[in-house]
Amino acid sequence: MCGIVGYIGNNAVAEELINGLKNLEYRGYDSAGVALNDNKNIDIFKAKGKLCNLCDVLNLHQKDLQNSTGGIGHIRWATHGSPTVENAHPHCSADGKLVLVHNGIIENYKELREELVKEGFAFVSQTDTETAVHLIDRTYRQTHSLEEAVLNAVKRLKGAFAFCIMHKDEPDKIIAVRKNAPLIVGLGDNENFIASDIPAVIGKVKKIIYLDDAEMAIVSKNKVEIKNFNGQLLDKKAELISFSAETISKRGYKHFMLKEICEQPDIIRNILAQRMSDVNNQIQLPQVNWNEILKKSKVEIIACGTSLHAAMVAKYFMEDLLGIPVHVEAASEYIYRKTVTDENTLTIGISQSGETADTITAVKQAQDKNAHILILTNRPDSSIVRYADSLIPLEAGIEVSVAATKSYTAQLISLYLLTLAWAERKESLTVRLQKLKQELLEIPAKLEEILSNENCIKKCSELFQKYKSFIYIARGINLPTAMEGALKLKEISYINASGYAAGELKHGPIALLDENMPVLAVLIPGTPTYDKILSNCEEAKARQAHLIAVTSSHDEHLNTIFDEIIQIPFSDEVFSPVLANVPLQLLAYHIADNLGREVDQPRNLAKSVTVE
Ligand code: F6R
Description:
It is a single chain. The chain is α/β, with parallel strands linked by helices. The chain has three domains: about 5-245, Glutamine Phosphoribosylpyrophosphate, subunit 1, domain 1 (4-Layer Sandwich); about 250-450, 3-Layer(aba) Sandwich (Rossmann fold); about 455-610, Glucose-6-phosphate isomerase like protein, domain 1 (Rossmann fold, 3-Layer(aba) Sandwich), CATH 3.40.50. Helices cover about 35% and strands about 20% of the residues. The protein has 18 helices and 25 strands. The strands form four sheets. The protein has an eight-stranded antiparallel β-sheet with strand order 3-2-4-1-10-9-11-15, covered by helices on one side. Strands 5-6-7-8-12-13-14 form a seven-stranded antiparallel β-sheet. A five-stranded parallel β-sheet has the order 17-16-18-19-20, sandwiched between helices. The longest helix is centred in the last third of the chain and has 22 residues, at about 430-450. It is globular, with a radius of gyration of 26 Å. The N and C termini lie close together (about 10 Å). Bound molecules: fructose -6-phosphate (F6R). Fructose -6-phosphate binds near residues 306 and 403.
């Protein structure tokens, strides 16, 4: 959560910072702020709410901004202290000379604050961040060296932090430090950038340096030095940015979410082309250590939110195709109990961002218990990767919309590939395996068919947008599909929605049913539970609920039960979660859009949840 940027160079500093922050808005949008240094003074501008509010403030001060040569900026997802202007970053020392922006949480801020208050430091915000400012300022007053003051202070801080720091008396530099929160330095010509994530510098620089934990960058216009927390100079290699500016543009779509939904067929086609040339060749996952994985007798998958739903789907087909036990758990639960993880366990951590604090902690705990760690992430440059013994990059491209869509589909495809690759290395399932591999290759075309039906889903959204609450039902491998569909609707439209196992409806939730509670059912024909779900839908209809089906069945009888039928192409049940999910993404999208919601930036959310 929170995004930070820094810029030092000859361009208009405020503009560079705002451009960077715009591309980090997925990290938070409770408040925004910048500090601009013109070699004489440091001026701070802040605003509550979205970045556009800060732009308004800056426009009012346009004439004061001309001479800036460096600056730092921040967008906030509030943790400590409500989203007010006082709590917005940058924070500064009492004399206004030292300014700092922070991403992360300083866990020992209370004791540090007490210590500093006793010494006479006055706090003006409720944030944990302000302790860091005063701590650095305290040493600076003695040493008059920003570098020394920062190194001294970071040794006292517990928790996670990425900082950008400037001092009025050292106007030629910005200092950036990192511990358990991502940070990169973008290398330009006569200018340099600092940012929480690559999108902030795409199109600005070609090369970046990834800071590792316990590292500090001293960034000037013409020079970047990287040191460790002992002050020793490090020789870090710069890496080329592989993303183009295209990846972070809407390309004519109204929202990033819709663009990302529509990208799914091409993404899957690319993944399959990389991993699977044809059904007769072995699936290639080059960063997976099969020697280790083939020895494992049990699997546990840890993730959060949408990634957890992908894990839940995987449990069904992994147990089915591999015959080994698969345990799935929310990372936030896993980390607070005694697990039976051991050296016979393959622990799979799934995280789109690779920065989710709960998932990182859980994976670390599993590693401490000698499990083999396989990471699935869309960001092979992220923090979680440092715990990976094996890795599957998701290759979904940068996902900008806060609601996860294409990364979920890419997670499912990667989990299918892992399972099929494992099965073929165990030399089991030969006939079924060939058939499944063939069907996997057909998925992109089937997704295209679903997307071509968008107008029908839009029409359905118009009929159903008036409801205040929804129930999504399914069984077996599509229970997580129902849960994911409900989550998508909830998070972007703010309509209450719950995903239930259809068989559980009669054990309680049926009490909710009436004409105001629509039921959406995912029904896959040819499965043992198809008729059972149909009966559950009849029961809902008998209680006046309005019903939507997402199904590959063409059974005429469905017209007598359902108000709307959203058709998906037929597939083996194993792959039905990928297909059934896309209409649910579109339904949630159109309902939210019809209601005028901020689809790409839903309230209270942020894309990387870097706090527990
Ligand atoms: C929902 C959503 C979240 C994330 C969750 C985990 O649309 O995006 O539920 O799935 O915060 O994030 P990652 O996968 O980055 O660990």
